[in-house]
């Protein structure tokens, strides 16, 4: 079993990741930390608790950063981007939560958890802006050598989804993304838009995992994405980004194309803020610091979701 902590900003695809992380027989979700991103932190934490309750999981939830690391503003107001924000502010269509968040800050929890020798095998999965992870590394720099593996959804090698250059999670807190990628964590796997868009889900996929309560809730969330995701309009297939990190934990053969690269994040470009730079030049000055997934097997991804949700 792969044990992991999930740091997320629960919107619809993070919620599907929570369902899959709780239910997949090969995975053990140890704790969830929340970070502001898709919507304000109180909605993110509420959505997270709703998703865990629906999945019947007694997993501790610690609330984290309400603001990006450096910026108090963003180059484009979030509300312009989030056509979806009403849905995300009202519980994602999930029943009200009965459980409550734990006392204590997510950043302190992450520090204590990964500094604990008993957790030397624990993977950190991040599916929101990297604010909490950056703050934990600032609080305790030794953490970089204590996190055995970081698997994150963020960035794009091709076009972004907020701007031509930037994907949402990196764009929402570019300084945090850069701090985390340059911290020296030994095993970093990036799941960018290139990978998630290579294996989008359709209405037929939803029907395939509808036979359980959790599967039906996941199917509703994916259908919502089919209706609202701009990239789904032309193709009738929607990228479901965040669960792909967990599919990789359970099926390390998920990615059919990946590169080792030196990666960094643009923190000052007028048009390129939040862009992921993937340097694969053989003569590049810096050594590789991440593996970047570029393409995923749609069959393996569907199989993972079926295993988890039915
Ligand atoms: C990422 O942005 C968020 O809206 C999704 O949950 C995902 O983590 C995709 O760009
Ligand atoms: Ca997310």
Automatic annotation (TrEMBL):
GO MF term list: hydrolase activity
Pfam families tied to this protein: IU_nuc_hydro
Top-rank taxon: Bacteria
The keyword Hydrolase appears for this protein: yes
InterPro entries the UniProt entry points to: I/U_nuclsd_hydro_CS (IPR015910), Inosine/uridine_hydrolase_dom (IPR001910), IUNH (IPR023186), Ribo_hydro-like (IPR036452)
Family matches, as PANTHER family: INOSINE-URIDINE PREFERRING NUCLEOSIDE HYDROLASE, URIDINE NUCLEOSIDASE
Protein name: Nucleoside hydrolase
Species annotation: Glycomyces niveus
